[in-house]
Amino acid sequence: MRPLRLTQPCAAFDDCRCRVYPDRPQYCREFECVLFKSVRAGHTELGAALRIIRTARERAEKVRRLLRKLEDADEQLSLSARFRRSGKRLQECDLDEETADSYAQLTLAVHDLNLLLGDAFYPGEVKRDA
Q1: Cα–Cα–Cα angle for 76, 87, 75, nearest 5°?
Q2: What are the angstrom distances between the C-alpha of 34 and each of 73, 79, 118, 127?
Q3: Distances in whole angstroms, Cα of residue 92 to Cα of each of 58, 72, 88
Q4: Can you give the pTM of this predicted structure?
Q5: How far is Cα 28 from Cα 126, in angstroms, rounded to an integer?
Q6: pLDDT tens digits, residue range 20-48?
Q7: How confident is the model at residue 58 (pLDDT cuts 50, 70, 90)?
């Protein structure tokens, strides 16, 4: 059984801080991403972890930019929900070459982000650096 996941962005997340930190849900209190576990266990150096986080943020920003270019600027929804919604909307249209190219770039950007998130952040076993 998979652990409960919170829809992102979290309504209590304000800039880089949790507004309900003392009263946050149990899942939030107990959650430790794979990257954190790896740093804590000494398998990943802090500098390497910070580079992974920076890369994840850059990839997420690339997805946001492409979604805005495709006229989806709803920052209250998760990137994955916005990506699915944009895909459905674009399937119903006759796409010009530029829009089709932007959607192709978005699809690759979402894939790249998901690969990194799956490897570095999702709960599971601590992965050792090779």
Answers
A1: 10
A2: 30, 21, 9, 7
A3: 30, 15, 7
A4: 0.75
A5: 19
A6: 767 777 877 787 888 988 999 999 999 99
A7: very high
pLDDT in tens, 68-108: 999 998 888 889 999 999 999 999 989 999 999 999 999 99
**Which string of b and e fits 29-58 if b means at least 16 CB within 10 Å?**
eeeebbbebbbeeeebeeeebeebeeebee
Q: Is residue 50 within 8 Å of residue 60, measured between CB atoms?
A: no
Q: How far apart are CA 86 and CA 88, in angstroms?
A: 5
How far apart, in Å, do the first and last CA atoms of the chain sit? 29
Tokens of 30: 């107990």
